[in-house]
Task: structure prediction
Amino acid sequence: MQKNSLKWILVLVSMLVSCQGGSQNDLAQLTRDQIYAVGNGSEISGLDPHRVTGVPEDHVISTLFEGLIGEDPKGLGLLPGVAQSWRISKDGKVYTFEFQSNAKWSNGDAVVPEDFVFAWKRLLTRDLGAEYAYLLFHLKNGRAFYDGSLKDFAQVGVKALSPQSLEVTLEHPTPFFLEILKFYPTYPLHRGSIESFGGPLARDGKWTQPGNLVSNGPFQLAQWDLNKVLVAKANPHYWDASMVRLKEIRFYPIDSRQTEERMFRSGALHKTESLPLHKVEAYRSENSTYLRIEPYLGIFYYMLNTAQKPLNDKRVRQALSLAFDRKGFVEHLLKAGQKPADSFTPPGIGRYVPKTQLPYDVDRARQLLAEAGYPGGKGFPSIELLYNSGEEHRTMSEAVQQMWLKNLGIRVELVNQDWKVYLASRKQGKYTIARASWIGDYMDPGTFLELFVKDGGNNFTGWSNPRYSQWLKETEVEMKEERRNALFEKMEALLMDEVPVIPVYYYTRAYLLRPEVQGHDPQLLDRHPAKYLWLKPPAP
Amino acid sequence: MIQWAIRRVLQGVLVLGFVISLTFFLIRLAPGGPFDRDRNLPAEVQEKLLETYHLDQPVFQQYTNYLGRILHGDLGPSFIRSDRSVNQLIEAGVWITFELGVYALFYAMVIGLTLGIWAGTHEGTWQDRLAMGMSLLGMGLPSFLLGPLLVWIFGMKLGWVPVSGWDSPASKILPVITLGSVYASYLARLMRTGIVETQREDYIRTARAKGLSEGAILIGHTLRTALIPVMNFLGPAAAALLSGSFVVETLFQIPGLGRFYVQAAFNRDYTMILGTTVFLSVLVVTFNMLSDFLQMAMNPRIRLQEGGDLS
Amino acid sequence: MSLWTLFALMLLAGIGPLFATHTFDQQSLNLGATPPSWEHWMGTDTLGRDLLARILVGARISFLVGFAATFVSLVIGVIWGGLAGYCGGKIDSLMMRIADALYALPFIIFIILLTVVFGRHLLLLFLAIGAVEWLTMARVVRGQVAQVRQAEFVLNLKGFGFSHFRILFLHILPNILGPIVAYTTLTIPSVMLLEAFLSYLGLGVQAPMSSWGSLMASGVEGMEEYPWLLWFPALGLGLTLMSLHFLGEGLRDYLDPKKKQELLL
Amino acid sequence: MKRLEVRGLQIGFQTDQGWIPAVRDLSFDLGVGEILGIAGESGSGKSALALALMGLLPSNTQVRGKVLFQGGDLLQNNAESWRKIRGSKMAMIFQDPMSSLHPYLRIGDQIIEPLLIHGLANPKQAREQALACLAEMGISDPKTMLQQYPHECSGGMRQRAVIAMAVLAKPDLLIADEPTTALDVTTQREVLIWMQKWIRASGASLVFISHDVGVLSEMADQLMVMYLGQGVERGSLVEVLKRPHHPYTDGLLRSLPAMQDRNAKHFYSLAGHVPPGGSIPSGCSFHPRCPAVQDLCRTTEQMLEINQERWTACMRAKEGSWKSS
Result:
């Protein structure tokens, strides 16, 4: 009996061994075939550029579609997209785009200016419920059309001048408008296919299914299995098809970073979306060829509820910031090359260089706290630090708690909440201190500094300042870059002095990349257009 | 018997209605809506979004609308996955989840019952201790720990099986073991206890006095009684297994319903939560009914009560 | 023996932290995660905190949660299942269908709501866990009671005019202790682990306090780099589990009326 | 001719409290076609004896001695040889028919099981035999009964089922442990009469265990009295009833309702109690309760054998002197 069962176990084990590797990606083979396998974070919520938000969606949609302006793989320049060239009027309000003569949809139809008019009208149609509709509020009458006060779309500032050119008129001169055009909500849509699958407002998403989706980017949708894989194949009709060297991209939606890292290590992926905090060190010392750490346009900070005691006292806020050992935090805890923050806006946006400093000065911090009436932390009420659930956020919060206890003698209670609850608490001001982060959408300091305008939709600090708001208004119309940057600098300085937020570090992107992947360069917005990527099999 | 089944199905429908209603209101009470994100939308966009998904209507009206739709088998559009309806999403995940669940259930039953019977029939011996030690190990290693451990050993170090996915037979082994082991441990313990208890009964001695072999006693007499606590546990367990496991599906990158369910809950995808809850309720009701039915088939005393209800 | 192990573990949890040279939340960022050494017997975690101290503190929480929540589920489960099984008929159907319905409710949402409505009290954690764990317990108990309640001796008791309460709790329950004890010992470890998930949802234990569940959950993430962060808490849980198992067996033997009979023949 | 020879049988249980002897150095014979009644209070080891004869004692027991049955020593049997003779060559009737019938199996299936597993009949024949047997025992609707579950039957029906289960395979040796205790007097009589008839007709031998000497006196050919694991007296029924040699037997008989002296003011009953398990008094183990105890009884025990079929464990029996005192 026992011998028998042993035999069975042996049979079973040999069966296991013999069918190993059944579906495992064979990375070498994929590389030879120019098939790029990449981890893509959580499953995309959809492929309709008007109905989704989020980074994983961006990765997929920007390989399938292309806007007027192309993304620069190496830096932050503006490359031709659907538009081969563009002109801007003197007052900065009228843009004229000339189209690529051979810009085509994946079904062979030509991409025409009307496709943009159609798409932008759809984005601005209230009944669609598009979250990014506000991006086009920069258009003349864009907002009015959206809120229904204007019925006639012809009066909105977008017009096809000819089959080859598109004219866009803005409400105000908007210096970063071209940056917005790199962003997927402003991409064109194929009117024919959308209308044949129920029209622009249909909710069943038939038109985005594989086989139905018509796109104009370097790749087209081939397969989409939810929570499993999304496959994009090279689009032969793409105007710049000769540039595209990848044959296929496989996007793997992977919720767990640990799983993703294991898949990468076992040779199933060319690139990961992320890397667990624990692993950075190990990769740095053992597999540094895979580890990529690149600056990223984002800031990690703590927001302070300035409406609450004791944080309504500026000196307390300053003390908290001064007692924050950013360098130690970054070097000993995060270890992924993050830079301690000296400003709210990360460096690297054009010629804007934030000049503020955020020193670590415990003596000064104690002094300020004493002045505020809490010498050595005595009498300081217990305050709460809110963070959204997650291993790494917890670790960081624990470090902060200890830091303030040690440096200032104040007690902080940690509170974690599920993401949506956390969002709601923040929004309703039901917090004292909360962790937060902000990622820039486009290359402009305004994408960071506009947060703290009075009654701003994302300003949960309760802090505002009329001068600050005034300066922000001025930047919206100021066309001279230097003067504009000077305004931003003043805002930055005011913000750092008032401390409604405690910036901690500038983000880096840490991920794993196989050396076979070529044309994948660091980029501050972490956009790596698939158009320029290719795979080079390692020399035998 | 048929009368009993009809009554149970009707009760099931009531349960379903109750669950749907309660869930419908509960999820709307939870803070954070489907469209709350890290960065807030302009107020007018937010407003319109709610309107689009009829979230601006009075809750009661939303409720009646939803009930109306559900009677037609339409679970509504997903709030988060805007390209799909809830029906489509469930359909996309359910078969894989079923497959995983059935394998895991099978694995758990084979391993668990075998171990339990083995231990129970060898009460107090080293075999008993070995089997119970294994069952303890299974309980002490929850799936979030067992999974990575198995992957690390068999996927990374030995390279026998893929570290993730759900396609080849080899890729299915680890997820099934990870999901099934805890249940196998539970079943082993319950089975063992059942056998040990039953073996003390006089009628087992009677069977032995008849000259039945130990095997025949076990199958024909002991298991009849000993399986009852197991059956009671199997109902909810089967429902839980077949409704998918978030941990295992995430760990192994399996496109099943468990991930949808948890993603939906965290994202406050109201229709999707409701859809998956409806699905789960159907499973629970069905499997508990099945488990009661099996018990009834096994226990004539309960059958007596056919006229009333299942006792 | 098992009782002693368990007792020793609890004692350690209770007074261990008083003697420890390190406190559970004392950090040393520069130190980071280090393997076990003379200074730190079980090593340190990524924040440089002494793991031994954290495990001892975590033991308090885990034991508290494990026993209290299991107790809650035991009480509700046994009463509910017992009544349903004993009464039978319509009452039984109603009670069990209610349990079915509760089983199908989305747990995550339920927990989130609980935190929002009532805050993050530890008591709530017990209730929340007890509230889900009792469902299966009730099913198991009910099945057993339904099986025993028509046994001769019960019918006799009824004949003697004993009250239903007395029959159910003093006569039927002792006869089905086996499965109940077995299932209870199964519940305790799963409750300890469930606690980690609930903490994730923001219920109950808050950082920097630790519990075995949360220590294990974070240990898994760094399994390859810092294995000691996983194995020591897992060892603690394993020991507890083992003692509970043998305790359960002993308890059942002790309480089981049948086993005693056997001796007398 | 002997059917069963028990020689020097010792049974003990290993428990947490130590070694507990249940049967001590017991020897007796049983002839073909004979009914041996075994009497004793609970704790006398009679049930352990019955189980030992069937090889059904739990694994924590130790059995020593010899039990010769059909030329072999039963105690040397392995599991397989036990299995072969149980239910076919020897069978047992247990005391509580409710608990010794499986609650979830039909009566019919349980009754015919021994026939089937020993290959003595095919299912159809077995069913017919069962029907016939039950009908003989006075079951009015045996057909229905076969389809019923134990809880659906009355106590009397269940008891008959248990008996049918044992006798259907026509065993040579039948062991009955308090088979009628749970029944009312009328039913009890019917069952006993039927059993006696069956034994006479089949030529089987019966070991009939009961605490009730009254029942035994209606059934048995031979009588053995047990006390604290020992046989204290053995002889033909008539002999023992007429002239009990052992004071314990005497006490048992005198406590029978039928034997009570109608003129006496009180019911006679044995003084004292059976000592709790494990503690065996020194000397004659009955001496603490013996009305005729002497100093020698406290230290010495002695077996007094008149012949092989008539013996007693009281050293004073021959003198008969204890009676006079």
